[in-house]
Amino acid sequence: MSVSRTGEQGPPVDTDPRRWWGLVVIALAQLMVVLDATIVNIALPSAQRDLGMSDGNRQWVITAYTLAFGGLLLLGGRIADLVGRKRTFVIGLIGFAAASALGGAATNAGMLFGARALQGAFAAVLAPSALSLLTTTFTDPKERGKAFGIYGALAGSGAAIGFMVGGLLTEYLDWRWCLYVNVPIAIVAVLGALALLHDRPGHTGARLDVPGVLLGCGGLVAIVYGFSEAESRGWSDPMVLSLFATGIVLLAVFVWWQSRAPMPLLPLHIIRDRNRAGCFLTMALAVIGMFGLFLFMTYYLQAVLAYSPVKTGLAFLPLTGAIIIGSTQISARLLQRVPPRMLMVPGMVLAATGMVLLTQITTHSSYASEILPALLLLGLGMGLTFMPVFATATAGVAPQDSGVTSATVNTSQQVGGSIGTALLNTIATTSTATYVTAHLTDPSDRTRVMREGVVHGYTVAIWWAAGIMLLAGLIAGLMVTKKAPKHGTPTDTPVPEPVVG
Fold first, then answer.
1. 333-371: per-residue pLDDT in tens?
2. From CA 231, how far away is CA 424, in angstroms rounded?
3. Furthest-apart CA pair in the chain: how many Å?
4. Nearest one of 348, 371, 386, 351 to 296, comparing CA atoms
5. How far apart are CA 410 and CA 268, in angstroms?
6. How much of the chain, in percent, has pLDDT values that exceed 70?
7. How confident is the model at residue 375 (pLDDT cuts 50, 70, 90)?
8. The pLDDT of residue 17
9. Handedness of CA 247, 248, 249, 255 (dihedral sign)
10. Which of 209, 304, 306, 357 has the fewest Cβ atoms within 10 angstroms?
11. Interatomic CA distance for residues 354 and 340, integer angstroms
């Protein structure tokens, strides 16, 4: 039950002491969704051998998840608004656990691909309901800062945690446990949700915008799929170009339809808000750089420096710790006192500085002196940025739109990750090929030149990632003009949408 601390008008401030345990449940679910995007990366070689996947098809273990997740997020967010956030959250957890168990028990590649797509679909239901539950549970600025600090830390570090957990499970148990591990986590989260979380009922009189679902989700799927295929086919491939064209046309028609639909899937006033739009763009650009880095560092540590899967996972631990410190100990404490962009801009500059340091890596770099300082700077920067992005993007949203707003934040993160992986990987491979062609003069020296070429490709792509993060900082500085919330007062009261009778 929500009670107001004051007699003044405004959104009620939740005083239920169990809300912090509810945050643990929400955080568990969010962690599970984010780390599942990367936990199977380290396990992929083992799964490929076990199930007889070809090199061309193995990418579908990753792509099937990101495609369903990124493409269906808007639908998942609207379902949370219509059906009720708590109910949607529980359904998402149960479905995610079932899909994970199916993937762990896969007997062939097709079964694993299908299970990963199902995981992505249920993640698209789960992630928006988790964030909107957090938004409606914590409305006091001081508590909201702490809650979003924890959430931002998990959203930013979940991918790195996935590499670490994936390495441990693959090396000491079996690749299948990278999927089975979700089942006990989901069971705990379901029991916690039923006992601790509360929510208003869904809007039973409202209907789903079916044309909006087909246009919006279809456009997002086409674009995410286009970026995933660009990695292997190249940017000028006719299929890739046609996917991009289809996606752009569908999204353009989607925007046109949303301005006319009686009950739109994505009310356009959500993205017309300057601060919110700035947060969405900042998130997408920040994640482009970060996901590309995760891909390169995994291969660099294992293939170039010959780290084991466990050692590779542990190498990401300082990055995770820095994100958590930046998010919970710095951003969460300062957001009540300073405007969001005063955290987001320095955060992106710090992250870009970490990237620039990483451009100095060679085939025999020292982890302690060359890689670790860069990861710490990157982690602090992402922690400073993610928390205010989540808190600002979801502040002051009408209750009936909180699910779809949360879905839009998650969509910008997911689409940014897909773009980053494909774009930076293409830059890296092209730069490697150019370097090898220019330097391979003696066939007996091929191994050394190839290794140097691979690292050169990574450094070129990391320079691009640094530039993209600086662009994210510039956009945050120019677009996110929201002032600091007044200490001890509830968040902005949402302006209710007019009811058409």
1. 888 788 888 999 999 999 999 999 999 998 888 899 889
2. 9
3. 81
4. 371
5. 17
6. 85
7. very high
8. 64
9. positive
10. 306
11. 21
User: What pLDDT is attached to residue 200?
Assistant: 60
Q: In this structure, which long-range contacts are made by residues 239-248, counting pairs with CB atoms below 8 Å and at least 24 apart in sequence?
A: 246/219, 246/222, 247/219, 247/220, 247/221, 247/222, 247/223, 248/219, 248/223
Length of the chain: 501
User: Which residues, including other chains, have CB under 8 Å from residue 434's CB and lie 6 or more apart?
Assistant: none
Check pLDDT > 80 for residue 106: yes
Phi, psi of 363 (to 5 degrees): -75, -10
Q: Which residues of 56-84 are buried (b: 16+ CB within 10 A; e: fewer)?
A: eebebbbbbbbbbbbbbbbbbbbbbbbbb
- Amino acid identity at 93: L
Q: CA-CA distance, 55 to 247, in Å (whole number)? A: 27
In one letter, which amino acid is 85?
R
CA dihedral (419, 422, 428, 431) positive or negative: negative
d(CA 186, CA 5): 34
Where helices occur in 440-493 by DSSP H, the ranges are 446-479
Q: How many CB atoms lie within 10 A of CB 481?
A: 12
pLDDT of 466 strictly over 90: yes
Distance CA 72, CA 220 (A): 8
Answer for the pair 279, 395: CB distance below 8 angstroms, yes or no: no
Confidence of residue 79 (pLDDT cuts 50, 70, 90): confident
**Residue 327 pLDDT class (50, 70, 90 cuts):** confident
The sign of the torsion formed by the CA atoms of 70, 74, 79, 81 equals positive
* Stretch (H or E) spanning 75: helix 60-83
> Which residues lie closer than 8 Å to 111 by C-beta, 6 or more apart?
102, 103
Is 487 a residue whose pLDDT tops 90? no
Which pLDDT value is given to residue 258?
84
pTM of the full structure: 0.77
Q: What is the CA radius of gyration of the chain?
A: 22
DSSP characters over 85-147: HHHHHHHHHHHHHHHHHHHHT-SSHHHHHHHHHHHHHHHHHHHHHHHHHHHHH--SHHHHHHH
d(CA 318, CA 336): 27
Question: Which pLDDT tens digit goes with each residue over 215-248?
Answer: 888 888 888 778 777 767 777 889 989 999 999 9
Give percent helix, percent strand, percent coil of the chain, each to the nearest 5: 75, 0, 25
- Sort 164 into a burial class: Cβ within 10 Å, 0-12 / 13-18 / 19+: buried
Q: What is the pLDDT of residue 6?
A: 40
Residue listed under structure tokens 């209710």 = 496
